[in-house]
Structure formats: C-alpha cells, structure tokens
Design a protein that fits this description.
ABC_transporter-like_ATP-bd; Rossmann fold; AAA+_ATPase; 13 strands; ATP binding; 2 domains; 343 residues; alpha/beta; Alpha-Beta Plaits; 6-stranded mixed sheet; nucleotide-binding; ATP-binding; 4-stranded antiparallel sheet; 12 helices
Length: 343
C-alpha cells in the first residue's frame, strides 16, 4: 500500500505538487492520470525518495522508502527508461541490482525470460531499441518479486504484442494481491488496464475513484435512435416525457432513459427503428472534460472539451506529447538503476 498525506513540492517559487492525499491499495491496478506538467512524475519520484517533499509525507506499507532494508524486494519501479550503463549487458545490469539487494542470481534469468529478453541477455544495452529497453526496465522492476510495483509510461515503445503482454502482466500482479500504480498518457490503454483512477491537474487532486464512476461523473451518456419516421418518433418521445435532440450525425439522442424502455415505446407505437444504441463517453473524453482547465499547454486552435454542445471533444491523438516509438526503433531506453539513483 502507498499512502500520501498532504504531499507538496515546490521548485523555487513554482508549486509542482499541491497537498496531495490519496491511497494506492493492493489488489487493483490504479491508474495515475494528469496532463503534461501536472506533477505525476514528481509525485512518483517523491514516493521513491528521489525527491524530497516540501511538506507532507508518503509511506510504503507504513515506512519511508529510505527505511526499507532491501528496497527491490518491497518496491519495483520503472520511472526512467534510460538509467543504465550502455556498456553493460542486460544480464549484468540486472545482476548488479540483484547482488546489491540480496536477490539470488537465478532470479536474473527468470525475469529476462518473463520479459522476452533471454535471447539478447548477453548483448550490450546500448544497442537495444526503445521497446527492448522498456522490457529491461520492467525486468528490473520485477527482479525482487516485490509487493508494490510502480510504472511510468510502461507501454512506451512497445509493439502491439508487448502492449498486450504488459497489460495482462499488470492485471495478473494485481490479482495476486499486489499494489500496482501506473501512469500513462494512453487513455485507450488505461481504460483496458486500470480499475481505479487517481487524476491530478496542476499538482492538485481532481479525482480518486473507480474507472466506471469516473466516466459516469465526467461524461454525457445517452441513447441514440434512428428511424425512417424521425419526426413521428420525436413526437412520441416528447409525449412520453422524454425530450429528444437531433445529434450532429442526424440521429435522435435521448438522455436519462434506458434503451430498453425507448425500444418498448417505439414498439408500442409501431415505429420501426434502424438503431437503438446506448452511447457512453470514453475515458479519454471524460478525462479531457475534467482536466480542461488544468492543461498547461494548449495547441493553437485546439478546441477545449465542452466547447461544442453535447459530447466532449476528443483529444488530438492519445499520447500526442511524448507518445510511443515503435518497438524496433534504434536508440535508448533502459531500466532503472536504483543504486545509481540513490534508492
């Protein structure tokens, strides 16, 4: 369990994290969301004692990270996918971490196999693609078989197979009763992975709730109907006390009524329906609506959510800033070296 209480961080006069209080509980994947510059990475660094808070505290199973005797056995984390010496092989990088934390040598081969790097275990990491580097970082996080895992943008650089793998891995870890805390800009992927959400904006807590409740509270849900007799259908709906609006695609939209009831009403009046479909906003739309006033950088001409009547505007592309580079792209990206970081 990770517990934050009044966590605050200033960089000079700039307030990066503002009085954050929330708990990351075991048994579920908790997604950590926020616009760029919202303080997510700073918060995660303070959890690991890489940055000192200006005020407040953070506890890992009741203790500060610095108080953990063998930290990799308690917490596994991937925050910086470039913190490894490029001249080391993947095997030797993990071996150094294992030896400094009293982890058996055999565990190195196990985690390399888990992340799919056994065939390149003896190769120097400086030749790894971004996706391979991400896998090495995930292997480092898993090395101590920890109770708590923290991942910052874990799918960055992974190919579709790798994204599917890490999604299932995080779910399996949570199902084992572990605490899984993951930050990502990829809303579609987070919607498939997380069960609980913590959302921050400009360093402040905006939401701490389940995925379903978050979407329900921050989005518009309605039922869309299509009929060859649209005017008659609208009259029937109005007479029944269900005001209907014409959507931008020409469909009839009704809020606050179950689809089954609307279907029964149309059947009672012998109105043919070509479509009867409940519409629910995506996580991306709900997130954009909630954080519209907390976004630090807006592209020129970008419309804020809610500018148009009805549904929220979608983002101009998931992960558009700092988005993923396909696995196989040459370049950096490796796991966290906690000894070098002072963990």
């Amino acid at each position: 369990m990770i517990e934050l209480e009044g966590l605050t961080k200033y960089y000079g006069e700039k307030l990066a994290v503002d009085n954050l209080t929330f708990t990351v509980r075991p048994g579920v994947v908790t997604g950590f969301l926020g616009p760029n510059g919202s303080g997510k990475s700073t918060t995660m660094r303070m959890v690991l004692d890489l940055d000192n808070p200006s005020a407040g505290s953070v506890r890992i199973d009741g203790r500060h990270y610095r108080e953990l005797v063998d930290p990799l056995r308690s917490v596994g984390a991937l925050l910086d996918a470039s913190a490894v010496h490029g001249g080391r092989s993947a095997y030797n990088h993990l071996l150094c971490l294992a030896q400094s934390n009293g982890i058996p040598r055999a565990r190195v081969a196990e985690v390399l196999d888990m992340v799919g790097l056994s065939s390149v275990a003896r190769k120097r990491s400086k030749g790894f693609s971004l996706g391979m580097g991400q896998r090495l970082g995930i292997a480092a996080a898993l090395l101590g078989d920890p109770r708590i895992l923290m991942f910052d943008e874990p799918v960055n650089g992974l190919d579709p197979e790798g994204i599917h793998w890490i999604r299932n891995l995080m779910r399996d870890l949570a199902a084992q009763g572990r605490t899984v805390f993951v930050s990502s800009h990829l809303m579609a992927e987070m919607a498939l992975t997380a069960e609980h959400l913590v959302v921050i904006g400009q360093g402040r807590l905006l939401a701490d709730t389940s995925m379903a409740e978050f979407i329900a509270r921050n989005s518009r849900s309605f039922v869309r109907l299509r009929s060859p007799e649209p005017e008659r259908l609208r009259d029937v709906l109005h007479a029944a006390g269900h005001p209907a609006a014409v959507g931008p695609d020409g469909g009839i939209e009704v809020e606050g009524v179950q689809a089954a009831r609307l279907g029964e009403l149309a059947a009672e009046h012998r109105i043919t329906l070509h479509e009867l479909s409940p519409q629910r906003a995506s996580l991306e739309e709900a997130f954009m609506r909630l954080t519209a006033e907390a976004v630090e950088y807006h592209a020129h001409g970008q419309r804020r959510p809610g500018a148009a009547a009805g549904a929220a505007q979608a983002a101009p592309g998931a992960g558009s800033e700092g988005g993923p580079v396909p696995e196989g792209t040459a370049g950096g990206g490796w796991g966290q070296d906690w000894r070098k970081k002072g963990g």
